[in-house]
Design brief:
- α4 packs antiparallel against α6.
- The two termini are 28 Å apart.
- By secondary structure, the chain is mainly alpha-helical.
- The protein contains six helices and no strands.
Length: 182
């Protein structure tokens, strides 16, 4: 009889440990994506700063500053990659994995847009001549990526991170609440 009770308690203990790990993971994941979401939105704000006195490339300053700020989030993205691996091991939700990847996709698109605008601003040979339709369309695509609310037909970055954030929230918050209730 004692062996049966011990066996049942061991099973209960294992389930409790797994629930505790899932809850801690869910809490970390939700906090990390919330921080990244709001950082990306702040980075894309149309409000900028003028170049400081003596800056060698004042026309690229605001784009370089935004690119640097995005680079400062590398540790948060590394943490997100680590949490993705943990989530795969503990929960295995493909919806959450795909949602996490949307944050990396948004970061990549922002980098492309910012670097494209920097290259364009540095393109001295183009200075003074009118843009071709193709060049104008390319710059418009960059602006749609960089500036929140700029795109007329749906924001490409918010279109990635907002649904991804909702997916992660909807899948992870119940795991957190189960742990809180114990």
């Amino acid at each position: 009889m004692g062996v049966v009770v011990a066996w049942l308690q061991l099973g209960s203990w294992k389930r409790e440990q797994l629930a505790s790990k899932k809850s801690a993971l869910a809490e970390d994941l939700v906090a990390t994506v919330a921080e990244l979401k709001f950082s990306i939105k702040a980075l894309r704000s149309p409000f900028g700063y003028g170049a400081p006195e003596g800056d060698e490339e004042p026309e690229t300053y605001d784009y370089r500053r935004r690119l640097r700020e995005l680079g400062e989030k590398d540790s948060d993205f590394a943490k997100l990659r680590h949490l993705k691996v943990r989530q795969e091991a503990l929960s295995g939700s493909t919806d959450v994995n795909e949602a996490i990847e949307k944050f990396f996709e948004a970061r990549t698109q922002l980098i492309v847009g910012l670097q494209g605008r920097i290259r364009q601003a540095r393109g001295g040979s183009e200075f003074g001549r009118p843009l071709t339709d193709r060049e104008f369309e390319r710059l418009e695509r960059y602006d749609n990526l960089i500036w929140e609310g700029h795109a007329e037909d749906g924001d490409p970055i918010n279109g990635l991170i907002d649904p991804a954030f909702e997916t992660i929230n909807s899948k992870m918050v119940p795991l957190i609440r189960l742990e809180i209730g114990k």
